[in-house]
Design goal:
129 residues; 5-stranded antiparallel beta sheet; 3 helices; 5 strands; globular
């Protein structure tokens, strides 16, 4: 778990982002950095991802592996780590999007290698209090 937190912390720090949340496809938090209401954010990330997948499939474009939403004050980026894991990143408006995508891709690869040793992500999910 500490390794996941380290990767997320580095991602947030290197991109000057606000927060990062790693979730499973059911909307449960695996790890997070600086996320307020992380459980609520995790559910929203999983829901957005699911809707994006359905929309993309309905258009005949296949599955998605990343998408972003531009808001008035920044970005929300979602990227697949694997079939059951999604990384959500909340970035500030001043962020350089190309650099952000580069760090996001590198972080996803590192997270993927950390998770590949554990077939059951349920063991890593933070307990719900």
């Amino acid at each position: 778990m500490k390794n996941l937190d380290r990767v997320l912390s580095n991602l947030v720090e290197n991109t000057n982002s606000e927060s990062a949340v790693l979730v499973n496809s059911e909307g449960l938090t695996i790890a997070s950095i600086n996320a307020e209401n992380e459980d609520r954010v995790a559910v929203m990330i999983a829901s957005l991802h699911s809707m994006g997948e359905k929309f993309s499939n309905d258009l005949g474009k296949g599955g998605i592996n990343q998408f972003y939403i531009k808001t008035d004050s920044g970005y929300l980026l979602l990227k697949d780590v694997n079939q059951n894991t999604i990384l959500g990143l909340v970035a500030k408006d001043q962020t350089k999007l190309g650099l952000l995508m580069m760090y996001l891709d590198a972080s996803v690869k590192e997270i993927g290698s950390l998770l590949s040793d554990d077939d059951s992500l349920d063991l890593n999910i933070r307990s719900i209090s």
